[in-house]
Amino acid sequence: MVNDQVWDAGLQPERTALAWQRTALASIVTALGTIRLALHHSSIAAVVIASLALALGAATIIGLRVRYRRSIRRLASGRPIGLLGPALLTSASIAALGCAAIVLLLR
């Protein structure tokens, strides 16, 4: 059972989780726009790459919920917390979107 107590005055875990969530949602919206544009220009490679970015963004959001709960448990036990997983997934999503944009530009 997770203790719902506020761990610090700045609510650091909440702010961090919300920031990653906003970034992942922006990545998802951009991927959807890229897919629409790629379908309009009949670029299958760009659709595939943007779909990968969409999946990575969705995985980031799903993983954030688990990481947030884990962070609260770690704070309760006095252990440090880290957010490397969301950073890697979001970075991979943004890199995939960049590749999709390059494919669309070169087409």
Automatic annotation (TrEMBL):
Pfam families tied to this protein: DUF202 (PF02656)
The organism's place on the tree of life at top rank: Bacteria
Keywords, sorted A to Z: Membrane, Transmembrane, Transmembrane helix
Subcellular localization: Endomembrane system
Cellular-component GO terms for this entry: endomembrane system
Domain DUF202, chain residue ranges per copy: 9-73
Membrane topology summary: Multi-pass membrane protein
Residue stretches spanning the membrane: 44-66, 87-106
Full protein name: DUF202 domain-containing protein
Lineage: Bacteria, Bacillati, Actinomycetota, Actinomycetes, Pseudonocardiales
